[in-house]
Amino acid sequence: MPYRRLPKTDSARIKALKTLLDNNDIYTARGRFISWDSISRAQPACDRLLTATQQYGVTLQAQTRHTRKLAKLQRSATMYVSHFLQVLLMSVERGEIKASQLELYGLNGDARVLPNIKTIEGLIEWGRKTIDGEKARLKKGGRPIYNPTLAMVETHYDLFVAANDQQRLQLERTRQAHDTLVRLRPEVDEILLDLWNQIEVHFADEPWKERVEHCSKYGVVYYNRKGEGKESEK
Length: 234
Description:
The chain has helices at residues 10-21, 36-94, 120-139, 150-202, 208-217, 228-233; strands at residues 3-4, 222-223. With 234 residues, it is mainly α. Strands 1-2 form a two-stranded antiparallel sheet. The longest helix has 59 residues, at 36-94. The protein is rod-shaped and about 95 Å long. The chain starts with a strand and ends with a helix. Mean pLDDT is 93; it is low at 230-234.
């Protein structure tokens, strides 16, 4: 025997509410069996859930697009900071830059390997130290490093940092949109349960098959238990 179950997804909740609200029979004074208070609650709840669902979809799509953009900028910034630090360490190894000046970049004087810049946090930290360290060394009269230049490193680093800040804001917007959905769901489920109870009570004296057909027309959702559909066909 089919059983009733409240929707599990937001789209299913909206569909169930719209099926009821689009049924003209619920608005006729004569023969109306659903309370007007319940109908009055259902319409704004459906509108709010639909708006919240659309808003969440928009913010999630924007976040996904920005994530791809951020990944590309991160790769570029990592490459430029990495290449710059490699040239710096080779210059120290060749004796062109004093090892003691590595401290300006936040590195030990005997550093021979690159710091971890593969993560966002590491890239932000060491990118900033690299830029500030090179500026400090140049201010002391040091010769600039070329290929890549400090200007190129700083440009790609700044683009990445700005995009990362924007991504954090986008993530917050997506979280807020999702939280709105989470808050709305219990209210919508409560309204649906109230409506479905009234609908089933009205058709309670009908034979089961006719009762399911009538209730379904008003948005009540029924499911067959496992294997029940095949048995019905037989």
